Amino acid sequence: MTKNWEQFKEMQPVVLKMFKNSLTKNRLAHAYLFEGMKGTGKRNASMLLAKSILCIQPIDGYVPCETCLNCKRINHHNHPDVHLVEPDGQSIKKQQIRSLQEEFSKRGVESSKKIYVIVHADKMTVNAANSLLKFLEEPNADTTAILITEQMQRMLPTILSRCQSISFQPLPKDKMVEEFKSNGVNASMAPILVQITHNLDEALAYSEDDWFVQAQKIVLKLYEVLRKNPLQAMVTLQEEWFPHFKEKDQLDLGLDLLLLLLKDLLYIQLGKGENIAFAHEQSRLEQYALQSSGKRLTDQITAVLESKGKLQANMNPQLLMEQLVLKMQEGSSFV
To answer: What EC number(s) are associated with this protein in UniProt (predicted)?
Structure first.
């Protein structure tokens, strides 16, 4: 999303300040761990840092000129001294790290400096991680390693201890909504999508996906049926929910949407309507909020969160949803 440090500053000001100091004082670490949730700019930052290191004439000592051969090659993903490693299938394998080590045993093609970026570093196999560990223990003075992860807790402590950890914070919601809209995401869906993903490409795909549009309608309908005619809820599950949310990840997304809807109702009750995700349904939700209690909504949110946990534990999806609906029906009314 961000093409230069100036744009990056708006999203991750603390990270930029740290790199600016390191670059201008020539105090870069030999290995970094970029950690944070998906879509917070980690991969973009790795390429910006690579350009800052290899740029022939950096501005103010740290800003890539964007016009030299090195900057252009990195922008086109074909610089011979910048190496990107990504999972091969479900994992990063030992041979991928070995190939990287062999490549780095040679002198730099354009200069003595070399940079490697490992995306989803938490997906390294144990053998791959151990190979990398040896690589990190004997760093070349002109080598910069950047490991990127959304699951820091899944990485070997010995690898973490050899990297300088940089935390990428969740992006400000209002800025992300505007960013999504300005890049073509459907305006009414942008507030919902910001809650689901911070990745622009993913948001655009959802925005143009009829399945996702229909998913929102089914979630709203299920909640409405639960309010007006709880006995019909099981029928709605059979006729509409199950045929639509067939896969595990689809069901997880459906539960996320239901969670957003319930949180919206709480926001409205608290007088914070400007924070709601289903902004295009605000008048309808305001009516729902009047007819429910804060405790009721809190209990239902807890039930949905428990269902998400059960889903990850591979509980039968049909049984899971039936239990959730029964849980949400508890009590004689929604007040």
So the answer is: 2.7.7.7
Per residue in 149-159, pLDDT (tens digit) is 998 999 999 99
For the chain, the domain total comes to 2
Q: Per the domain annotation, does 261 fall within a domain?
A: yes
pLDDT in tens, 71-114: 999 999 999 999 999 999 889 999 999 999 888 877 655 567 89
Residue among 253, 254, 259 at smallest CA distance from 298: 259
Instruction: Identify the three-state secondary structure at position 74.
Output: helix
For residue 183, what is the DSSP state? T
Distance of alpha carbon 289 from alpha carbon 283, whole angstroms: 10
133 and 215 assigned to the same domain: no
Give the max Cα distance, the chain.
Answer: 74
**Which tokens belong to 259?**
């969670």
DSSP, collapsed to helix, strand or coil, labels residue 4 as coil
Contact 188, 279 (CB under 8 A): yes
Strands of 163-205, DSSP E: 164-167
What is the residue whose two structure tokens read 């800003």?
63
Residues 9 and 138 in one domain: yes
The radius of gyration computed from the CA coordinates of the chain, to the nearest angstrom, equals 24
* Residue of 119, 51, 120, 121 lying closest to 82 (CA atoms): 51
In 54-177, the DSSP E strands lie at: 82-85, 114-118, 143-149, 164-167
Of 121, 152, 171, the one marking the end of a domain is: 171
Q: How far apart are CA 64 and CA 20, in angstroms?
A: 12
Smallest Cα–Cα separation from 102: which of 116, 91, 118? 116
Residue of 53, 51, 59 lying closest to 23 (CA atoms) = 53
State which residues form the domain around 129: 5-171
Q: Are 194 and 177 in contact (CB under 8 A)?
A: yes
Please check whether residues 19 and 85 belong to one and the same domain. yes
DSSP character string of 53-105: HH-SS-BTTTB--S-SHHHHHHHTT--TTEEEE--BTTBB-HHHHHHHHHHHT
**Per the confidence metrics, is the pTM higher than 0.70?**
no
Q: How far apart are CA 331 and CA 335, in angstroms?
A: 9
